[in-house]
């Protein structure tokens, strides 16, 4: 018997396996029992880290658990289960999660001493669970559940298994799982905005990126399920939805037939994978979801620059409720660095795309991601990034020093040879350019009127907070203003308000509310070249 145990399969063989279809039920995991008493009425506390996709995933998890009788709490002392939705994209994100786990380990120990009849369970979900697998179990003895991005349907059973004192793990990646049939339950039901995941995974294989290894291959939800979710959110009073994916522009509903010819990549762009053929594409999806409710704003993120066909630009231009704010993650301004990153385009091709977009959609706003200190980056190559930021008018930018991730191509092929102090210095210089440029761009808006969707109240000042079409914050005082019926009423979250910009900082506008309006009314008399603002 000892020899059999010694020569038998190890932990790795049990938690890493081939993909399997998971569409309408919990997956069959051969090393876990099928018939487990799920239990209910246990209170769950969610910790969410990372991107908007993680927030969307948490709402999927909450839908699954709520359906099984679990309850949600925002008070730690009430919680029976802590579920930490993790991010693995950068070292800094993982460091925050390790610190949180230290706190939860202590909380669990104190609870066991105080009340042995009510033990605390800790679950690690998402990308970090997928990336670290065995390390989480071996290092974090307090962790009870480890669940990857494609195993959320199995969470009720995994949690039930922990009642016997064992650790439950499911990190199998799927080629098919999209959770298309799971109706997410929003964590903040009072919010006027919501996120909708339209696809999962990524096929781009950029050398610096861990996402293909933690979220698997790219697959898209059916158009019909996405449109139905938008319809349900509209019925709940949501005024803005953001379509989420690692690369939304490569969305493809291959279950549907389309007579349209497949568009070719623009000149200067290439891809490492074979593009899917046929089916409905992202432009088709935008057309469908923007038609559900013309008074609901539609946003989307993220997008790879290689996938911006004219059909997408045209539908954005034509539909007033699709925000004219495009995310164009450049990552670097150096062609040589972009080649090492395997981004599939040069600096020149990126700039050509920017010019084409700004010509096609007058008044468009642009945002980007930038990385400094990637493997082998010289000062001259970094200067090209700064010059790109000077050339392109980015309204929003997410700027990061490079963080090497295991499993990525860069980890295997390159050396992380830019010193940390150099990365920090370059990061600060990027921030300086970005803030200076934003200050100039925002000051140019003073005197113009923006359509603002009111989100809530700023706690410190009591002012109202909303966002304009470019997702920039606008704050203003509460007061009665002209209403749609020519009366007067106060401003509420969820209202569309025409706001005159009277002051600007690099990250926020201050304004004066003028009147209640709607998307259709605000843009009715605007020319296409002046869709975002009008000078009064």
Notable characteristics:
536 residues; alpha/beta; Rossmann fold; pyruvate-formate lyase- activating enzyme; OB fold (Dihydrolipoamide Acetyltransferase, E2P); six-stranded parallel β-sheet; five-stranded mixed beta barrel; 17 helices; disordered C terminus
Description of the structure:
The strands form 7 sheets. Strands 2-1-3-4-5-6 form a 6-stranded parallel sheet, sandwiched between helices. It has a 5-stranded mixed barrel with strand order 17-18-19-23-22. Strands 7-10-13 form a 3-stranded parallel sheet. The chain folds into 3 domains: 10-22 and 30-170, 3-Layer(aba) Sandwich (Rossmann fold); 193-442, pyruvate-formate lyase- activating enzyme (Alpha-Beta Horseshoe); 448-535, OB fold (Dihydrolipoamide Acetyltransferase, E2P). The model is unreliable at 9-25 and 527-536 (pLDDT under 50). With 536 residues, it is an alpha/beta fold. The chain is built from 17 helices and 24 strands. The protein is globular, with a radius of gyration of 24 Å. Helix 9 packs parallel to helix 10, helix 10 (282-292) packs parallel to helix 11 and helix 14 packs parallel to helix 16 (420-443). The protein is 33% helix and 21% strand.
């Amino acid at each position: 018997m000892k020899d059999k145990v010694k020569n038998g399969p190890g932990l790795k063989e049990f938690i890493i396996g081939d993909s399997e279809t998971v569409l309408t039920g919990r997956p069959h995991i051969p090393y876990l029992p099928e018939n487990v008493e799920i239990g209910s009425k246990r209170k769950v506390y969610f910790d969410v880290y990372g991107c908007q996709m993680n927030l969307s995933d948490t709402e999927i998890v909450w839908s699954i658990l709520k359906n099984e009788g679990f309850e949600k709490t925002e008070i730690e002392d009430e919680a029976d289960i802590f579920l930490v939705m993790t991010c693995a994209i950068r070292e800094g994100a993982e460091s925050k999660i390790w610190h949180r786990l230290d706190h939860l380990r202590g909380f669990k120990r104190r609870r066991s001493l105080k009340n042995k009849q009510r033990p605390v369970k800790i679950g690690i979900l998402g990308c970090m669970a997928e990336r670290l697998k065995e390390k989480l179990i071996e290092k974090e003895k307090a962790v009870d559940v480890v669940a990857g991005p494609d195993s959320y349907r199995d969470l009720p059973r995994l949690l039930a298994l922990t009642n016997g004192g064992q650790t439950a793990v499911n990190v199998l990646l799927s080629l098919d799982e999209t959770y298309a049939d799971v109706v997410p339950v929003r964590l903040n039901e009072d919010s006027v905005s919501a996120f909708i995941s339209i696809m999962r995974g990524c096929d781009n294989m950029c050398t610096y990126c861990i996402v293909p290894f933690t979220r698997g291959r790219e697959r898209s939800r059916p158009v019909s399920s996405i449109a139905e979710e938008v319809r349900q959110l509209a019925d709940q009073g949501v005024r803005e939805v953001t379509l989420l994916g690692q690369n939304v522009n490569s969305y493809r509903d291959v279950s549907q037939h389309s007579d349209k010819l497949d568009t070719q990549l623009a000149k200067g762009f290439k891809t490492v994978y074979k593009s899917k053929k046929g089916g409905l594409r992202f432009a088709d999806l935008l057309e469908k979801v923007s038609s559900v409710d013309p008074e609901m704003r539609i946003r989307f993120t993220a997008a790879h620059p290689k996938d911006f066909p004219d059909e997408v630009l045209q539908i954005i231009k034509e539909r007033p409720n699709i925000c004219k704010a495009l995310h164009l993650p450049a990552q670097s301004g150096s062609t040589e660095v972009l080649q090492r990153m395997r981004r599939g385009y040069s600096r020149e091709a990126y700039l050509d795309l920017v010019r084409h977009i700004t010509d096609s959609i007058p008044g468009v706003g642009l945002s980007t991601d930038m990385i400094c200190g990637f493997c082998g980056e010289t000062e001259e190559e970094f200067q090209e990034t700064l010059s790109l930021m000077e050339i392109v008018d980015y309204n929003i930018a997410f700027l990061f020093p490079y963080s090497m991730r295991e499993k990525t191509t860069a980890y295997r092929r390159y050396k992380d040879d830019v010193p940390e102090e150099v990365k920090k210095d370059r990061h600060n210089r990027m921030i300086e350019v970005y803030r200076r440029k934003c200050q100039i761009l925002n000051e140019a808006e003073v005197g113009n009127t923006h359509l603002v969707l009111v989100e809530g109240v700023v706690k410190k000042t009591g002012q109202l907070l909303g966002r304009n079409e470019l997702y920039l914050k606008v704050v203003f005082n509460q007061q009665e203003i002209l209403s749609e019926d020519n009366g007067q009423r106060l401003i509420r979250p969820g209202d569309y308000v025409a706001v005159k910009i009277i002051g600007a900082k690099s990250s926020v506008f201050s304004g004066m509310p003028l009147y209640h309006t709607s998307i259709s009314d605000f843009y009715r008399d605007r020319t296409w070249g002046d869709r975002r603002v009008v000078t009064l």
